[in-house]
TrEMBL record:
<comment type="similarity">
    <text>Belongs to the glycosyl hydrolase 1 family.</text>
</comment>
<keyword id="KW-0326">Glycosidase</keyword>
<dbReference type="GO" id="GO:0016052">
    <property type="term" value="P:carbohydrate catabolic process"/>
</dbReference>
<feature type="active site" description="Nucleophile">
    <location>
        <position position="312"/>
    </location>
</feature>
<dbReference type="InterPro" id="IPR001360">
    <property type="entry name" value="Glyco_hydro_1"/>
</dbReference>
<dbReference type="GO" id="GO:0008422">
    <property type="term" value="F:beta-glucosidase activity"/>
</dbReference>
<dbReference type="InterPro" id="IPR018120">
    <property type="entry name" value="Glyco_hydro_1_AS"/>
</dbReference>
<dbReference type="InterPro" id="IPR017853">
    <property type="entry name" value="GH"/>
</dbReference>
<keyword id="KW-0378">Hydrolase</keyword>
<dbReference type="GO" id="GO:0005829">
    <property type="term" value="C:cytosol"/>
</dbReference>
<dbReference type="Pfam" id="PF00232">
    <property type="entry name" value="Glyco_hydro_1"/>
</dbReference>
<protein>
    <submittedName>
        <fullName>Glycosyl hydrolase family protein</fullName>
    </submittedName>
</protein>
Length: 400
């Protein structure tokens, strides 16, 4: 690994970009389960409505990312648009997403395509979702149908974003008002866990059949479980069904996505809130950029030589200077991991745009702000700063 006086030089081919998710930026995803939930009577979720209108403005978004210096863009395609009814595929939507792939390539952005980012078609949810009979097959069938989108020009495909959070969400739905407080996560639904792992493996095979040139993986939400004194065994037991079982399922994949934002401290009795004097972000999470280093090392310890890609890392804040400070700390962790020999292949920031954060527009993670009325995009100083690293190809390095 080559270094300079200012930091660590990135290896050739390193992915450097930002991430988004279709439902969070496109707008009017009316055939999805999330849209239906947002508009149910009694829902506490703010509706997504037009979101950032990126369904129509994706060219502008890609232009900005390319002009800022980024080389990679992770975006998702929407199952509910592509297969609005069981077994019926929209040629128009497939063509739309293919235009996005080609548009990225034309701008010098390497596309990473996520096939599932939390939302499913209404019909899939209504038949029982992931725990219904044949769910994994139905996902595989959809993946096969995406061949016109991903068949050429796409090097990296993410099958499912944060399956551990999908399994946790299933448990929360089952618990209802009995769901645990924010300091902890409920035990993921075992049937959902099994179905998601099966769906992932079937999707990996389906993508491989589309093109052997595609590198396939999935991304895991790393909570960075840290054991307080006497809680080592409790932490391992707490972490395994919520995280490790999903990481272990990627041992035969081409890569695994590491997604990290903060840490979770564990006592013998379970998780505890952030320290009372800790700085909190707009999501209520502890400001803790070191989490990314812990997440990379823990993931590597479980998957062995499977390459790592940071597919999400960022902070919800109105103070862009804190975003730069946080990301500087996180990138120092990436540099340290690379220097220690971990096979880290990329860093994709969350998120490219301020967007719909699953029930609210208040948490602003974006490098680019979006006016809610005009949809005007305005890059923040953090966007120019982070894009500039792509030009220098040098990561900040922690002081020795």
């Amino acid at each position: 690994m080559n270094g300079t006086a200012d930091g660590l030089r990135l290896p050739d081919g390193f992915l450097w970009g930002a991430s988004t998710a279709a439902h969070q930026i496109e707008g009017n995803n009316v055939n999805s389960d999330w849209w239906q939930m947002e508009h149910e009577g009694g829902s506490v979720a703010e509706p997504s409505l037009d979101a950032a209108d990126s369904y129509h403005r994706w060219r502008e978004d890609m232009d900005l990312l390319a002009e800022l210096g980024f080389t990679d863009y992770r975006f998702s395609i929407e199952w509910a648009r592509i297969e609005p009814a069981p077994g019926h595929y929209s040629r128009a939507e497939l063509a739309h997403y293919r235009r996005m792939v080609e548009g990225a390539l034309e701008r010098g952005l390497r596309p990473m395509v996520t096939l599932h980012h939390f939302t499913v078609p209404r019909w899939f949810a209504e038949r029982g979702g992931w725990t219904a009979e044949g769910a994994a097959y139905l996902f595989e069938r959809y993946v096969r149908a995406t061949a016109p989108v991903i068949g050429t020009g796409v090097r990296h495909v993410c099958t499912i974003n944060e399956p551990n959070m999908i399994a946790v969400a299933g448990a929360i739905r089952e618990l209802g008002s009995e769901a645990p407080p924010a300091a902890g996560l409920p035990l993921p639904d075992k049937a959902t866990t099994d179905a998601l792992i099966q769906a992932h493996h079937r999707a990996v095979d389906a993508v491989g059949a589309i093109s052997s040139d595609i590198q396939v993986g999935w991304s895991i939400a790393n909570q960075v479980y840290q054991a307080l004194p006497g809680a080592e065994a409790a932490t391992a037991a707490y972490r395994h069904p919520r995280e490790d079982v999903f990481i272990e399922a990627a041992r035969d994949d081409d890569w695994i996505g590491v997604q990290s934002y903060t840490r979770t401290r564990i006592t013998p009795d379970g998780p505890v809130p952030a320290p009372t004097d800790a700085e909190l972000t707009l999501t209520g999470w502890e400001y803790y950029p070191q989490a990314l280093g812990h997440a990379l090392r823990h993931t590597a310890s479980l998957v062995g030589d499977v390459p790592l890609i940071v597919t999400e890392n960022g902070i919800a804040t109105e103070d862009d200077t804190r975003r730069i400070d946080y990301t500087t700390g996180a990138l120092k962790e990436v540099a340290a991991a690379l220097e220690d020999g971990l096979d880290v292949r990329g860093y994709l920031h969350w998120s490219a745009l301020d967007n719909y954060e699953w029930g609210s527009y208040k948490p602003t993670f974006g490098l680019i702000s979006v006016d809610p009325s005009t949809f005007a995009r305005t890059p923040k100083p953090s966007a120019a700063w982070l894009g500039g690293i792509a030009r220098t190809r040098v990561l900040p390095r922690a002081a020795s």
